[in-house]
């Protein structure tokens, strides 16, 4: 179940060609599979999201379209976006994925001074699903995918939040944030 990357390669006498595509396999009981978030690419601005001021905006470095999320205000200390969805029943497999770029001015490579957290709130409880830190900058945007199958069938508030210390800011750029059910 879930998303699978499939590569088909044809080998000829003079040339080799490959094609790669994504195969989505969902449970037969999952009648409404796929992405459950609205405005995943932030192209409608803040619509459907509950963001801190200025976090969602038009930027030239959006991964797709012209808008993305940027957590970079170390003076604000804490910034977040959230969206609440009901994951359809019958879809036992759930993933959260987004494209992330981490750039930092922190110079002590082993210290996790600035943090990006992915949390889920459901039934009055909060789960930390994953976190990323300033000591692991990325080379451009990279897709991250987190298993969130424990959220199957639940109404959940998904939060992505940044916590930064008072100096040497880190830029956490995010685009194309999806909650996929299968
Ligand atoms: Ca976008
Ligand atoms: Ca910092």
From TrEMBL:
Top-level taxon in the UniProt lineage: Bacteria
Gene3D superfamilies given in the database record: Galactose-binding domain-like (2.60.120.260)
Name under which the protein is recorded: CBM-cenC domain-containing protein
Species in which this protein is naturally found: Virgisporangium aurantiacum
């Amino acid at each position: 179940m879930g998303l699978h990357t499939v590569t088909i390669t044809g080998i000829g006498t003079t040339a080799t060609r490959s094609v790669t595509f994504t195969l989505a396999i969902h449970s037969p009981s999952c009648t409404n599979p796929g992405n459950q978030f609205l405005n995943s690419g932030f192209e409608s601005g803040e619509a459907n999201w509950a963001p801190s001021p200025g976090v969602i905006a038009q930027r030239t470095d959006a991964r797709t379209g012209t808008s993305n999320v940027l957590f970079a205000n170390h003076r604000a200390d804490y910034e977040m976006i959230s969206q609440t969805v009901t994951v359809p029943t019958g879809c036992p497999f759930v993933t959260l994925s987004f494209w992330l770029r981490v750039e930092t001015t922190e110079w002590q490579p082993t210290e996790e001074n600035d943090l990006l957290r992915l949390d889920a709130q459901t039934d009055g409880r909060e789960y930390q699903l994953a976190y990323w830190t300033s000591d692991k900058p990325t080379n451009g945007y990279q897709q991250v995918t987190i298993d969130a199958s424990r959220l199957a069938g639940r109404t959940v508030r998904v939060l992505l939040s940044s916590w930064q210390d008072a100096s040497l800011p880190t830029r956490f750029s995010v685009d194309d944030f999806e909650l996929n059910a299968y």
